[in-house]
TrEMBL record:
<dbReference type="GO" id="GO:0009231">
    <property type="term" value="P:riboflavin biosynthetic process"/>
</dbReference>
<keyword id="KW-0067">ATP-binding</keyword>
<keyword id="KW-0285">Flavoprotein</keyword>
<dbReference type="Pfam" id="PF01687">
    <property type="entry name" value="Flavokinase"/>
</dbReference>
<keyword id="KW-0808">Transferase</keyword>
<dbReference type="InterPro" id="IPR036412">
    <property type="entry name" value="HAD-like_sf"/>
</dbReference>
<protein>
    <recommendedName>
        <fullName>riboflavin kinase</fullName>
        <ecNumber>2.7.1.26</ecNumber>
    </recommendedName>
</protein>
<dbReference type="GO" id="GO:0009398">
    <property type="term" value="P:FMN biosynthetic process"/>
</dbReference>
<dbReference type="Pfam" id="PF00702">
    <property type="entry name" value="Hydrolase"/>
</dbReference>
<dbReference type="InterPro" id="IPR023465">
    <property type="entry name" value="Riboflavin_kinase_dom_sf"/>
</dbReference>
<dbReference type="InterPro" id="IPR015865">
    <property type="entry name" value="Riboflavin_kinase_bac/euk"/>
</dbReference>
<comment type="pathway">
    <text>Cofactor biosynthesis; FMN biosynthesis; FMN from riboflavin (ATP route): step 1/1.</text>
</comment>
<keyword id="KW-0288">FMN</keyword>
<feature type="domain" description="Riboflavin kinase">
    <location>
        <begin position="247"/>
        <end position="377"/>
    </location>
</feature>
<dbReference type="InterPro" id="IPR023214">
    <property type="entry name" value="HAD_sf"/>
</dbReference>
<dbReference type="GO" id="GO:0005524">
    <property type="term" value="F:ATP binding"/>
</dbReference>
<dbReference type="InterPro" id="IPR006439">
    <property type="entry name" value="HAD-SF_hydro_IA"/>
</dbReference>
Length: 400
């Protein structure tokens, strides 16, 4: 196979040289998150550490450290929390605490798909991170196949200035033998977006913290998750795994008793959504990008039904909490609050959107329903209907 690495000027995808330069932080979940009960290695470590100094990590500082170099981030923490030590002392205390957690870092949803896709098409990829090179190497050593997928890896200590300076991306392009203007940067942080634009590259931002997209004005596009990247927009080979407008995902499962929701599904939209308590599920919810998904719903004493749902903050209503809103595609005679609901989520449709009118929101949700109903007939998705997880004391079922 002739790869871009063999000949950087050969590119069947138009005039673009095939070079998405990708930063590590946009591919793996190391970032702190807003909700204090949510998983995030940086948050977890800092919470423990600050406790020793009698300080409380509230997650707000997270917004000030994303994308910074380690010493810049350290300076922010030392100052924000008034710690009685120098930035250097803080760095040497906290560094081993972080390193111990690297093996737990999970690839972001869609990261492996993206890497395998571009690698399979001979598209060169670079990894350009503000973290020191040895940290980057160690972090990616836990992710099978990543090291071999990047033709260039650069750490923040291998350039004179880290992001927001464009230097790290310019160096990546140089080492890949590519013109910066034909590189696509995928970035999660503001300093990274600034660096990419400063390098005269196209930049797609995937903000790592919720409700931040309005800040990324200099990016060429802001997407909600890696699932939403459309490579063809940038002259790169399109993903080939979308099926009838839906994207198969690694199935995941969530369940619990049906609780009261916002009290507007049926009333305001005419679309009831059976909410389950998100207590105990914050990690699971945080791991999955907000958006519209579908799958199968098992309801105790009733049966298994098709289901379409949104996960997130419902931009139209701008909720404070991330929730899941499953609409069971069946007419029920009455409410089923308190009953056990189990969901197998098997496919993705689209990111959550805002709408200029309630009618437009409702119309869109009905389109989602049609798409889910149809897709769930495909063997790829329909097989999960029989998943053991969904079978909870169905009527006439003596086996439970
Ligand atoms: P809430 O705000 O309390 O969630 P909704 O107006 O969203 O209220 O209605 C959801 C409730 O309606 C569910 O908890 C369930 O008891 C009932 N319900 C009836 N039919 C359905 C359905 N097809 N899908 C989801 N929930 C339904
Ligand atoms: N809310 C939004 O604000 N934007 C959306 O794009 C959106 N998509 C949805 C798709 C489906 C399939 C469902 C069931 C709900 C969706 N909602 C969306 C959530 C809707 O606003 C929610 O059900 C109500 O807020 C009820 O609490
Ligand atoms: Mg509801």
């Amino acid at each position: 196979m002739s790869t871009a690495a063999d000949d950087p000027n050969s590119n069947k995808w138009g005039h673009w040289h095939p070079v998405p330069a990708i930063t590590l932080s946009s591919l793996s979940k190391t970032k702190p998150v807003k909700q204090h009960d949510q998983y995030g290695i940086v948050s977890d470590v800092l919470r423990v550490y600050l406790n020793k100094y009698g300080k409380q990590w509230d997650g707000k500082a997270a917004y000030r450290i994303v994308g910074k170099t380690p010493s810049e981030a350290a300076a922010v923490i030392v100052e924000d929390f008034g710690l009685p030590l120098s930035t250097d002392e803080f760095v040497s205390e906290i560094t081993p605490m972080f390193s111990a957690q690297w093996c737990k870092i999970k690839a972001l949803p869609g990261a492996n798909r993206l890497i395998n896709h571009f690698r399979g098409h001979g598209v060169q990829m670079a990894l350009a991170s503000n973290s020191p090179r040895t940290n980057v190497d160690t972090k990616i050593s836990y992710q099978p196949g990543w090291k071999e997928s990047f033709s260039v890896i650069i750490g923040g200590d291998e350039v004179t200035a880290g992001k927001p300076s464009p230097e790290i991306f310019l160096e990546a392009a140089k080492r890949m033998n590519c013109d910066p203007s034909s590189c696509l940067v995928i970035e999660d942080s503001l300093p990274g977006v600034t660096a990419g634009k400063g390098a005269d590259m196209k930049v797609v931002a995937v903000p790592s913290l919720p409700k931040q997209s309005h800040l990324y004005t200099s990016a060429d596009e802001v997407i909600n998750s890696l699932l939403d990247l459309r490579p063809e927009m940038w002259g790169l080979p399109p993903f080939e795994d979308w099926i009838e407008g839906t994207l198969p995902i690694e199935p995941w499962y969530i369940g619990g008793p049906v609780v009261k929701g916002f009290g507007r599904g049926s009333k305001v939209l005419g679309i009831p959504t059976a909410n389950i308590s998100t207590k105990g599920y914050s990690t699971l919810l945080q791991e999955h990008p907000s958006g519209v998904y579908f799958g199968w719903a098992g309801l105790s004493m009733k049966g298994v039904y098709k289901m379409v749902m949104s996960i997130g903050w419902n931009p139209y209503f701008d909720n404070a909490e991330k929730t899941i809103e499953p609409w069971l595609l069946h007419e029920f005679d009455e409410d089923f609050y308190g009953e056990e609901l189990r969901l197998a989520i098997v496919g993705y449709i689209r990111p959550e959107a805002n709408f200029s009118s309630l009618e437009d929101l409702i119309k869109r949700i009905h389109e989602d329903r049609k798409m889910a109903e149809k897709a769930l007939e495909l063997p790829l998705y329909s097989n999960y209907r029989n998943d053991e997880y969904l079978k909870i004391s169905l009527p006439g079922d003596e086996s439970h």
